[in-house]
Every structure is written in structure tokens, then in C-alpha cells.
């Protein structure tokens, strides 16, 4: 199974980097799921949780307010001003 190469950064640090099975972001027009082999996409983020689901099903969830996500050839780049641990994070998706 193919994986996504994810880089999640804020203005001053790298929040998360590595391989993931799925990423879910709060795009301004609704929640957007990202899976391997997705068409190239660039989206503006709204307010909500970014969820990164690794190959074992573990979920890393962080709240964001704005930013962007870029997807191209299974490379996902998420850039935001700040990210804080999500209040309703779960260990399994």
C-alpha cells in the first residue's frame, strides 16, 4: 500500500513529519480527506482539527486556524501559523 509523505509546519517549528495512510484537514469549504494517489490539490484551511492517521491507525490531531495544504504526488505539505493539541483527539480513527 502506498503512503503519504507528510510535512506539517507552523511559523516557527515542524509539528509532524513522516508517512501517513490518510490526512484530514479543515478546508474553508468543509472537511477534506487526503489519501494516496490523490490529484494535485491546493486548499486554504479554516478553523478545526488536522488529523494525521499513520499506517498503524494512530491519530495525531491538532487544532488550527487558517493556513494551507498542498498535495502533489503523495507529498502533503501543511502550513499554518500555529497548532495546538486537539481537545477531542482519539488514539484510533
TrEMBL record:
Belongs to the ATPase epsilon chain family. This is F0F1-type ATP synthase, epsilon subunit. Pfam families: ATP-synt_DE_N. Residues 4-83 form the ATP synthase F1 complex delta/epsilon subunit N-terminal domain. The keyword Membrane applies. PANTHER family: ATP SYNTHASE DELTA/EPSILON CHAIN, ATP SYNTHASE EPSILON CHAIN, CHLOROPLASTIC. Keywords: ATP synthesis, CF(1), Ion transport, Membrane, Transport. It comes from the Bacteria.
Amino acid at each position: 500500500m502506498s503512503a503519504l509523505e507528510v510535512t506539517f509546519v507552523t511559523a516557527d517549528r515542524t509539528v509532524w513529519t513522516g508517512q501517513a495512510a490518510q490526512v484530514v484537514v479543515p478546508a474553508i469549504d468543509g472537511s477534506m480527506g487526503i489519501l494516496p494517489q490523490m490529484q494535485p490539490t491546493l486548499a486554504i484551511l479554516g478553523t478545526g482539527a488536522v488529523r494525521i492517521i499513520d499506517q498503524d491507525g494512530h491519530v495525531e490531531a491538532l487544532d488550527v486556524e487558517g493556513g494551507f495544504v498542498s498535495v502533489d504526488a503523495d507529498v502533503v505539505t501543511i502550513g499554518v501559523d500555529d497548532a495546538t493539541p486537539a481537545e477531542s483527539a482519539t488514539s484510533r480513527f
